[in-house]
Amino acid sequence: MTQAKPTAMPLDIPVSNVLAEHLTVRIPLHWRNSLLRLALAAVAILALTYRDWLAMFDQWWNISTYNHILLVPLIIGWLVYARRDGLATINPQAWWPGLLPLAGALLLWLLGTMAGVNSASQLGAVLALQSAIIAVLGARVAVASLFPLAYMIFLVPFGEELVPSLQMITAKLVIWLTEWSGIPAIIDGVFIDTPAGLFEVAEACSGVKFLVAMVALGVLVAYTCFKQWGRRAAFMAGAIALPILANGVRAWGTIYIAQSQGIEFAEGFDHVFYGWVFFALVVGALLAVSWRWFDRDPEDIGVDFPNIDERKWFQIVDRWTIGINKMAVSVFVLLASVAIWNAMASRVEASIPTEIVMPMVSGWTLVDYTPVVTWKPKASGADHRLLGRYRSESGREVDVFFALYAAQEEGREASAFGEGAFDPSSDWRWLEPASTVPYAKADYLLAYGQHKRLVATTYRVGDLLTGSAIKLKLANMRDRLLLNPAPTMMLVLSAEQKDGGDMEASLNDFRKSIGDEGEWMDRIAALR
């Protein structure tokens, strides 16, 4: 009797092929064709939107506010893996209604790209991937993996728009706690003056970093650790409120320590404490308080809505299927159409004059621009910029900045963060919003804790005159989508606080003198 020899793997077969074959065997046969088509669609979407994915990854990696997003893909992978057994029982079928959200996502990406609005184009890029999954794999797979599919939205960096509001909230919390603790203090916008020195609730101290991270974590915990919607809502309320309140206490603690130990010691302590250590303590406190009400084991995660087949409406919706190859062709036709339209729109630019000048204003004279503290608004990528000072017969002075753009796109966007009246890299700091000025966004700026300036920013495109960055972006999106070459203008009127002068009155007098502000801007741009 001879002993059978064990079968040996031929040495000429690459190990990578063996691993690939092993992984392929673990994928159910009825999933392979659909996953291949999904992979091709995903590659095509990434090829179209790659600039946005590179920009997002740069933010995830280099901006501390978004470092937590690096974990989101891993979380999504874990959520899908946890429901692998349930998904294996589903037969994926392409679902033609999924083309509708895909078309909407691509349109949003197109509009954001045309107007240079990163938040819109990045959101569109992520939504396009989500929609492709729904379209290619079908309604049944989408419903079974609804949470990880929806959680992909946290790949989009968001939160910058919350910074001014969070600064004001933190400042109000700090002044209340400071006065409560017996320290005399005076608040002026986001600046708090105490016996130990002047403190600023800067953008980095707004708490937005921990708020956006806590929202992403809170949604995950609410889903995996709770079954009851009431408990989920209560937990999310705590996840939003706690970091805001904790950030106010932290900022107050810095001021409190500075009164006895000095500003340098307080700043050093704050820099050490105010980081992920602080975030970990806040998270630990929230989880410790909520632990006793957890009613779901994260290990028990299965498919979402396991009994969806019993719903009559889903039985009808689930029938709206299409062949996988027809779906693949439809997806690529959509992507090609958007790519062509984007290429056409990117070439649209308005005709503008080769030179513009500051106009004469009745009752006002152009004088030398000599600010107490250098103030120069930022207008990256503008084709023309003007900066000058007008003085009235009564001695009032107003500074005027005007920027003209032939088109709006990335790198030359009038309403982008850091553009306009307040340049974060300058000596000026945002203080607080000012009283409403018609058709303008008004703010107070402060330099070196004592020099104050009022600024009012107005945007103009076509017949639109507004101080709203959102309205400007929507108008830019409309024009680029319709291939309408319309120039964009930005006007910043500003007045320094001098010898008790009334800044608001100076701006109001100047605005009355120029008449219709939109027409005045059009004349500078030689459109009238």
From TrEMBL:
Compartments, record wording: Cell membrane
Bilayer topology term: Multi-pass membrane protein
Membrane spanning stretches: 35-53, 65-82, 94-112, 132-156, 168-187, 207-226, 233-253, 273-294, 327-344
GO molecular function: peptidase activity
Keywords: Cell membrane, Hydrolase, Membrane, Protease, Transmembrane, Transmembrane helix
EC class name: hydrolase
Superkingdom, taxonomy of origin: Bacteria
GO biological process: proteolysis
Keyword Membrane assigned: yes
GO cellular component, one term: plasma membrane
EC number: 3.4.22.-
Record flagged with keyword Transmembrane helix: yes
Domain Methanolan biosynthesis EpsI as annotated: residue spans: 331-515
Protein name: Exosortase A
